[in-house]
Amino acid sequence: MALSETALSELAGLVGAENVLWRPEDILPYGFDGTAALKERPGAVVFPADTGQVAAVVRWAAANRVPVVTRGSGTGLSGGSVPSGGCVVLCLVRMDRILEVDPNNLTLRAQAGAITLKIDEAAGVHGLFYPPDPGSMKISTIGGNVAENSGGLRGLKYGVTRDYVMGLEVVMADGRVVRLGNACVKDVAGYSMKDLFIGSEGTLGIVTEVLLKLLPRPAARRTMLALYDRMEDAAETVSAIIAAKIIPCTLEFLDRRTIQCVEDYAKVGLPTDCAALLLMETDGHPEAVRDEAARMEQIARERGARAVRVAGSVEEAQQLATARRSAFSALARMRPTTILEDVTVPRSELARMVAYIAEIADRHGLQVGTFGHMGDGNLHPTFLTDERDTEEMRKVHLALDEIVERTLELGGTITGEHGVGLAKKPWLRRQLGDASYELMKQVRVALDPAGLLNPGKIFD
Question: What structural domains and CATH numbers belong to the chain?
Answer without folding.
Answer: 5-91 (3.30.43.10), 98-216 (3.30.465.10), 220-409 (3.40.462.10)
